[in-house]
Amino acid sequence: MDKLPLPDQHPNTVNALRNKRAEIAGDIERHNREIERLRSELIHLDQVLRLFDPQTDPEEIHPRMRRPRCVAYFDKGELAQRVYRALRDDRASVSAEELTKMAMVDKGLSPTDRVVHRLFMCKFMPALADLRRRGIVEKIGEGRGVRWKLAPIEADLI
Question: Which CATH architecture is the domain 78-157 placed in?
Fold first, then answer.
């Protein structure tokens, strides 16, 4: 049976593990302080609520869950690159729906996930509008069936 190496034979590894443990323990402590602060605020809020409406039972109020607003699915400039790539890959035009589905598949996400689908659509639409404002793409049509194509390059500008 092989012997395990002694800790003094791997000082860098041991030091890195100790530092990581200290970091995680610090995060837990910080979050516990935040939880205590929020609990204190909730107790005070419940008391004020009871002052204004003595019949209210604060325990019957269900917590509201919030979704994070900032989602880092795309790197800086990635949306525009995806639009360019889709339009240059032998496509005359592309829709935001097609861009969304391609991006979801590329990132290993299910195209049937409605929450992520909506999130991606809400990222592609402003990106396409910005490219249109800059004269890079043109809008074809209106409404749900709108498509986008590369704007023609003017001959006198070449």
Answer: Orthogonal Bundle (1.10)
